[in-house]
Amino acid sequence: MARRQPRGNRREAPPPNIVFIMADDLGYGELGSYGQRKIRTPRLDHIAAQGMRFTQFYSAAPVCAPAREALLLGRHAGHVRHANQNAPMAAESVTLAELLRTQGYATAMIGKWALGDLGTGGEPDRHGFDHYFGYLDQTAAHRHYPTQLYRNGERLQYPGNALFHGDVHSGDAFVAEAQAFINRHQGQPFFLYLPLTLPHADIVAPQAFLDAYAGRFPEMPFAGGHYAPQTMPNAATAAMISLLDHHVGKVLDSLASAGLDERTIVFFTSDNGPVSVGGRNFEFFDGAGGLRGGKRSLYEGGIRVPMIVRWPGRVPAQVVSDAVWSLVDVFATVADLVDAPDGETDGTSMLPILLGEAERLARRPLYWAWRGSQLSGPPDDAGSWSEPEFVQAVRLGDWKAVRFNRSSEVELYNLAEDSGETRDLAARYPRKVATLTAIMEREHAPLPVR
C-alpha cells in the first residue's frame, strides 16, 4: 500500500499520551453501550458517551497471540503468526512501542504479553517497552490469582495466591502498576499498553463483585478441572465483566486526577470474541451481540469486537460510527497522530475519522487467517479439540467471504443485510466470490519458521 507521509499539522504541543486498553475474550455484545442488559458496565458506557463508539471494528484474529502481534506490528494475518502459540516475536519486528520511543515517548506494557517468555528474546523490553509488568506466558494468564508475575525481568512471588483464589487479583495489581506509571510520567508523553486478562479463562471474581449478581440468574455449577470450579458461573461471568469495567474506570480516574484527560487519547477494545469454557456460557448473555460464532471463529462473533475512543476536546463526544477498521489500523493511526512515518504496515490511518474530519475512508479489504482447532466436546472440557484447520476471511465493503483449508468452496455474506451470516450467497454472486478469493491468495503469506 502507499505510504502515508508525516503531516506537521497533526502534531500536538505537547504530543498526546496514548492509553490502549485491551480486554481478553470480551464479546461484541457484553457492554451496556453495545446492547448488554444483564451485566452492568457503567464506566465503559460513560466513556463511550464521552467519545466515539464503533459498531464495525474488528480484531485482527479470533485468538489471543496473533491479535496482539498484529496490533503491535500493524500487520494483518498474512504477515504475522496464524496460530495461538507462545513463540517469541521476531527480533527484527518493529513495534508500535519502538516507533513511539523514537518520538520521545515513555512506554509500558502492563498485563498479558503472550509474545515471548523470559529468556526467549521476545520479552517486552526487547520490543520497545521501557517498563513491563504482568504475565509473559499466555497460559499462565488463565489464572487471575497468580503465584508469580514478572516486572522488567524480575520474578515477583505472590505466596498468598493459589491460582483459583488468593490475596491479590492480577487485575488489581495491573491497575496499581498503571496508576504508578501514569503518576511517574506526567511531564513526558507516554504510551501505556494495558492488555487486561478479564473476562478470560477461570470464571472467578472477588466476592464483592460476585455478590452483586448472586441469585440473579439460573446457574449450572461447574465442577472444575483445567479451569477453576464455580458454583455460580453466570454470576461470576457478569462479575468479571463488571470488575473489568471497574478497573478501566480506575485508570481513567488516575488520568483525571493528574489533569491529563485532555492530553490523553484512550482506546478500549477486545482481542477477540467471547468463548464458552470453564462454565462460562456467552450465549446466555448474548455475548456476541447476535453475531455468528465466537472465539476461534472467523465469523463475525469471533472477530467483531467493541472499540471506544475517548479524547476530550479532540475526538467528538456521543458519536456512533459505522466506519470499518481493525487492530491492524492502530499502528498507522497512532503514527499519524504523532506525525511519524508508519513504515511497512498493512493498515490505514483512521485519524481523520477520530477527529471528526471524515465519516469513512476509501473502501479497502480487511483480511484474516488463522490455523487452529475448535472445541469438539462440552465447553467445560478444555481437552476435547477438533483436528486443526486453516481458515481465511476477507471483508470488502459490505461483502465478506470465508473459506476453510483453501477449499474451492467459499461462503459469501452481505453484512449490510445479514450481519448474522445466515444466508450464503456464493452461488448467486460468483464474480464477488472470485474477487474476494483472489484477495485471500494475494494477502496470504507462509508463516515464517521460528
Question: Can you characterise this structure?
Answer:
With 450 residues, this protein is α/β, with parallel strands linked by helices. It has two domains: 12-365, Alkaline Phosphatase, subunit A (3-Layer(aba) Sandwich); 368-443, Arylsulfatase, C-terminal domain (2-Layer Sandwich), CATH 3.30.1120. It is built from ten helices and 14 strands. It has helices spanning 42-50, 64-73, 96-102, 170-184, 207-211, 233-257, 300-303, 330-337, 351-354, 430-443; strands spanning 17-23, 52-58, 106-112, 131-135, 148-151, 154-157, 190-195, 264-270, 307-310, 319-326, 366-372, 389-396, 399-404, 410-414. A hairpin with a 2-residue loop joins β12 and β13. The protein is globular and about 60 Å long.
CATH topology of the largest domain: Alkaline Phosphatase, subunit A
The level-1 CATH class of the largest domain: Alpha Beta
Helix content: 10-25%
Characterize the biggest β-sheet: 10 strands, mixed
Task: Write the CATH architecture name of the largest domain.
Answer: 3-Layer(aba) Sandwich
Q: Return the average pLDDT rounded to an integer.
A: 93
Distance N terminus to C terminus? 26 Å
Number of strands: 14
Taking pLDDT < 50 over at least 5 consecutive residues as the criterion, the unreliable ranges are none
Write down the Rg: 21 Å
